[in-house]
Design a protein that fits this description.
The protein is of the alpha+beta class. The chain has 2 domains: 2-51; 59-201, no CATH class. It contains 7 helices and 5 strands. It has helices spanning 2-15, 18-28, 34-51, 59-67, 81-91, 152-155, 180-201; strands spanning 75-78, 99-105, 108-116, 121-129, 132-141. Strands 1-2-3-4-5 form a 5-stranded antiparallel β-sheet, sandwiched between helices. The longest helix is centred in the last third of the chain and has 22 residues, at 180-201. It is globular. It starts with a helix and ends in a 7-residue tail after the last helix.
């Protein structure tokens, strides 16, 4: 009797989140053997966590939206010691990388960055025009909380933002309750994208 139930759990775990699946199991087996319920719940959490995380959006789609054509191979920005030190200051921790991928055509550029939210990395693309953020896209979110940062109502705050002195953003980014670390990671990546763009283009920053 146990095996068919476990098979069903395996199938459900492929298509629905671990939270929803756990709630369904609790309702289905309420009042039954607690040991069986615990085993099923733990199994659903494991499977759900492995399959319910979002797959990265095709980066090619985002790049085509920016450049209007299939993107060429990315450029590599190799970080100098001074740049590494500045980025470490922004992140408040040491760097785990020495180069950053980016795409550039005329005044448009896209920077692909990654930073840990609470436990797992968030991957985001930053579209810049003449040293100003035009659009930000979360390409992969792997945390169990803080997923609200994916949505336009949050990301649109970055539109039109540029860099002031000391790598400070020109506009304050409002936080989201329960997603503080994810918001912080996105804000740091925005600062890094703008800073690195300055290093390869040396644009004149907008005046207030």
């Amino acid at each position: 009797m146990m095996m068919p139930v476990m098979v069903m759990v395996l199938m459900w775990g492929l298509v629905i989140s671990s939270r929803l699946l756990t709630n369904m199991l609790v309702q289905k087996f309420r009042g039954k053997n607690r040991g069986s319920l615990l085993l099923l719940a733990l199994l659903s959490l494991f499977i759900g966590d492995a399959w319910a995380k979002e797959k990265p959006e095709d980066l090619t789609v985002f790049l085509a939206q920016v450049f209007g054509e299939p993107p060429r191979k990315p450029k590599m920005k190799y970080l100098s010691d001074i740049e590494r030190e500045r980025i470490s200051d922004i992140l408040s921790h040491s760097l785990s990388f020495r180069r950053v991928r980016y795409w550039r055509k005329s005044a448009s550029s896209v920077w692909l960055l990654e930073e840990v939210g609470k436990h797992k990395p968030i991957t985001a693309g930053f579209w810049l025009e003449k040293g100003i953020i035009k659009k930000v896209k979360v390409l992969a979110f792997r945390e169990s909380r803080g997923w609200e940062i994916k949505y336009p109502y949050f990301l649109k705050q970055f539109n039109g933002v540029f860099l002031l002195e000391n790598t400070v953003l020109s506009t304050k980014v409002d936080g989201i309750s329960g997603a503080t670390l994810s918001v912080r990671a996105m804000t740091k990546m925005a600062r890094i994208a703008l800073y690195l763009n300055q290093q390869v283009t040396l644009p004149q920053a907008p005046q207030i």
